[in-house]
Every structure is written in structure tokens, then in C-alpha cells.
Write a structure and sequence with these properties.
Layout lengths: L1 E7 L19 H16 L6 E5 L2 H14 L7 E3 L7 H9 L7 E6 L3 H10 L11 E6 L11 E7 L5
């Protein structure tokens, strides 16, 4: 059994509408969300073998703030520009390339891809995946054979539940 954790970045700051979206940082609310998420990781004893994070400012800040709760050093995360505007197919390709020695991963990205992946992997229709939402998907196949039929949504946690 393998696990995929999908995390949408925490709430972003829209006070400067002229700022390029890639460089948008977390809002005060987002900082609080990420801090609560760190405690949630610690209290649930969640750990991962690998972290893939969009290289946008708000996704990096989200992971920076919650990495202690995971016990995962930020320097070990893989920051990818391609996750910034990635679609479902690109993220699935990334997952299929994983070594079989990896049993659990965390992907920190953006909507609509995070919501779409949760819906595809779980065969459900979730309509709302707010900032800092976290899902756990159970995979019962090899990474290279990732199939929607062999995935199950175990949980969806929204920030108010942390």
C-alpha cells in the first residue's frame, strides 16, 4: 500500500493586485492555516518519504511552515516550476516515475489540479477544495501502474478541521 497526500497551498495574500501570481505570498490567514497544519501533521503522526512542491512563493511558504510537523527537512523537498501550472496528466506522470522504494509522498500545489486529482483518484465529486486542504489517497499498485481503479480516497481535511 502506498499513500499520496495532496495539499493545496495555504491562503494567499491578494493585497497587491499588480504582483505576479507566482510571487504571491501567504496572507495572515494562510500563515495561521499552515501553522495549524504543522500541528495536525505532528498530532496525526503523518510522515512522508518524498515531498514535491510547486516553486511558487506561497507553496514554498506553506511547506516551510508545516515541514516541522512532518519531520521533513525543507532542504530535502523537491521544488518544481512545472507544478505551478501543472495539470492532472503532468502530476500523474511525476507520480508514475517514482521509485518503488518510496511508499508515501506529499504534493503541494494549486487548484484546479489538486481538486481535480482528488476527484479523479477518489472517483468522487468534491466541489470545494479550499486553501490548505489536505487529502490522503491510498494506492494499491506500483507507482508505474498507477490506476484510478486502484486508488481510494481515505480522507479530506479542510483547515477548519485541523
Amino acid at each position: 500500500m502506498k499513500q499520496i497526500y495532496l495539499l493545496r497551498h495555504a491562503d494567499s495574500d491578494w493585497s497587491n493586485l499588480n504582483q505576479h501570481d507566482f510571487y504571491r505570498s501567504l496572507s495572515k490567514k494562510g500563515i495561521q492555516e499552515a501553522s495549524k497544519l504543522s500541528n495536525f501533521f505532528k498530532n496525526q503522526t503523518i510522515s512522508v518519504d518524498k515531498v514535491f512542491c510547486s516553486s511558487s512563493e506561497r507553496t514554498k511558504q506553506t511547506f516551510d511552515m508545516c515541514s516541522d510537523g512532518l519531520g521533513y527537512p525543507i532542504t530535502n523537498a523537491t521544488y518544481l516550476d512545472r507544478l505551478y501550472l501543472a495539470g492532472v496528466d503532468e502530476i500523474i506522470s511525476l507520480i508514475k516515475e517514482l521509485s518503488e522504494s518510496t511508499s508515501s509522498i506529499l504534493i503541494i500545489g494549486h487548484n484546479p489540479a489538486m481538486l481535480d486529482l482528488v476527484n479523479i483518484f477518489s472517483n468522487n465529486k468534491i466541489n470545494n477544495y479550499p486553501s490548505c486542504s489536505l487529502s490522503e489517497i491510498i494506492v494499491e499498485s506500483l507507482w508505474k501502474d498507477l490506476s484510478l481503479k486502484k486508488c481510494k480516497l481515505k480522507s479530506v481535511c479542510k483547515p477548519q478541521e485541523f
